[in-house]
């Protein structure tokens, strides 16, 4: 009787044949980190969702509301740069989970304080602090995904991991809408600790050195490439954290893809912040929806968002990161331009669900390209990209959107956002292709 060699993957049938072959621990880490990115998604969605209530309570204009939103992104820039950069300096593999836990602790504490804020000044301070935490969470968490999966399926892993964003954008906002209807906008911020605490505990438990060693051994036995070698896992930090951090930053900044990804990320995130900051304002004012319903509908893109991220992340593994990003830039521009025609509940559902096929998809493809290009400083590179791109785009986008909408209306606003998406095609064309499937 002939038996299959243990290192040979067995043929699969049905739906499973479309899934990458990976170690069970890799799949579990993917599930948990997807839950982790859900926290970021909910945080970014809460303030725009409840913004009409905040504008009313504190007597703010749209431009002033945009400045309030911009404070969150100011904190995000700080968190992405500082925590993202030190995510490499404090250690790779299993040790990276502890850097992420620090960022989550900042988010939990600041969200609780926000729920009990009573003045505009307090709200502004807590939003900056909360931004520091969420800004630091993403680069460290994305890097963890890359380290627990084989290089050959990195686009799929990061794309699937980022389905936490559309999940939070729909299910999270659906729950937040219910909380706002039953209680108020402050109580919505207590939703984050409820999901963050169990996720961080599970992730720290799974992210053990022995588990990563099992994963890497399995990857090697199956003829694929681990993201971390045994030498990298065994290396001890002999440098001080600040010196090690600076070494990682220099490695990241030397890579052309990191610098170009900052520009692409900046433009896409400007577009996203410009859309979501005043979406509930448009839905309540122009479409005539009550706030709780407007919050729910504003998350409609999450219904299809997971499809776009998994599909385009996987396509980028085989056809190239640049190919996927170019298609996504055009898709973004078209669907954002369609938002001019949102005037009712039905038109909002249709257009926002269509937007979901493109909304979150560029980011995991860019993240995968950075991890491909600069693995020794991946967290630093992602921290720079997220900190500069997300932080600065949010600082600029929300106030500019508030000004444009207040003076020229939503039509000019959305045409301007569409133009930004098409502008992203320029740096995309200059990115060096890193996908192993595309360069073979």
TrEMBL record:
Keywords: Membrane, Transmembrane, Transmembrane helix. It comes from the Bacteria. Signal peptide: none annotated. The keyword rRNA-binding does not apply. The keyword Membrane applies. Residues 29-436 form the Major facilitator superfamily (MFS) profile domain. It is found in: Cell membrane. It is a multi-pass membrane protein. Its main location: membrane. One of its GO terms (cellular component) is plasma membrane. The chain crosses the membrane at residues 25-55, 67-86, 98-117, 164-183, 189-207, 260-281, 287-311, 323-342, 382-405, 411-431. One of its GO terms (molecular function) is carboxylic acid transmembrane transporter activity. PROSITE patterns: MFS. InterPro entries: MFS, MFS_dom, MFS_trans_sf. This is Predicted arabinose efflux permease, MFS family.
